[in-house]
Amino acid sequence: MVDDGSSDQTRAIAESFAGVRVIRAADAANGTTGKCNALICGAAAARAEWLLFTDADTVHYPGSLAAAVHEAQERGVDLLSYSPEQEVASWSEQALMPVVFAELAQTFPPGRVNDPADPAAAANGQYILVRREAYEKLGGHKQVAGSVLEDVELARLFKRSGRKIWFRHGAGLVRTRMYRSFPAMLEGWTKNLALLFRHPVPLAALRMLEFFMIVGLLCAGVVLMLQRHYWPGGVFLALWLLVYVNFLARVLAAHFPWKATLMSVPGLALFSFLLLRSYIHSQVRGTVSWKGRTYLRNP
């Protein structure tokens, strides 16, 4: 385990388990993000044939590591990444997270990512398993050291080199709760969203329009029906159903519980706001902040 300047009891807790080796991250080189620096230090200290990069907030089911190594070997890939099951507790998590992950599923469809002939590449930094030989030959995280989205850039590095990668939902293998407070979620997605999506401003406008259509068409239809204007009311409700079913089909692909899926309509507005906020911070101001550190936008 790499202790990257933790200020709580993380190190002491880790050291209380027999067999756990804890190292302290070295000072980061100029232009290297904190996470990449920690991963570089961890990889340098490891000696295994396979390296699993995972975060402190992930929960791994029994047997998941053996299953992941077996899957990587069976598929003949050098990089395997799982998108963990997402735990959501607060209202804001249940509203926003399904919308974000539904958008990610459309932007990085596994079918394209896993096709060696397709340039699309993606990985989730919460769970990336790599063959050590390939990782070291390609330069590993040192090659993406300045990237805030080091997981996606690492996947691109592997795929551009002709190495096979595999990316899928990690149901039954690993889970995580990414953010435990609204401020943490605000900071985290402000850091990432504009970097994940190629056209953040048009996408924010599109999702805000979708939000207003779902809410507006439903309200207009109900009001007209209550006023006994059945024909126009029925038209508005039919249009609402069409827009909502399309939205629901997209969100279902994100693999969230039904409660979160049904609560996700307000998440469209929150997603649009955070997407614009992320764009302003990373593209206009040119900086992103995370865990008390500030980084310049990727060139």
Present the secondary structure layout.
Layout: E1 2-3, H1 10-15, E2 23-24, H2 34-45, E3 50-54, E4 58-60, H3 64-75, E5 79-83, E6 85-86, H4 91-107, H5 110-113, E7 127-131, H6 132-138, H7 150-160, E8 165-169, E9 174-176, H8 182-196, H9 200-226, H10 230-252, H11 258-262, H12 265-285, E10 287-290, E11 293-296
Parallel strand pairs: 1-2, 5-8, 6-9
Antiparallel strand pairs: 3-7, 4-9, 5-7, 10-11
Descriptive notes:
The protein has a domain at 200-296. Helix 4 crosses helix 12 (265-285), helix 9 runs antiparallel to helix 10 (230-252) and helix 9 runs antiparallel to helix 12. The chain has 12 helices and 11 strands. Strand 10 and strand 11 (293-296) form a beta hairpin. It has helices at residues 10-15, 34-45, 64-75, 91-107, 110-113, 132-138, 150-160, 182-196, 200-226, 230-252, 258-262, 265-285; strands at residues 2-3, 23-24, 50-54, 58-60, 79-83, 85-86, 127-131, 165-169, 174-176, 287-290, 293-296. The chain starts with a strand and ends with a strand. Strands 3-7-5-8 form a 4-stranded mixed sheet, sandwiched between helices. Strands 4-9-6 form a 3-stranded mixed sheet, with no helix packed on it.
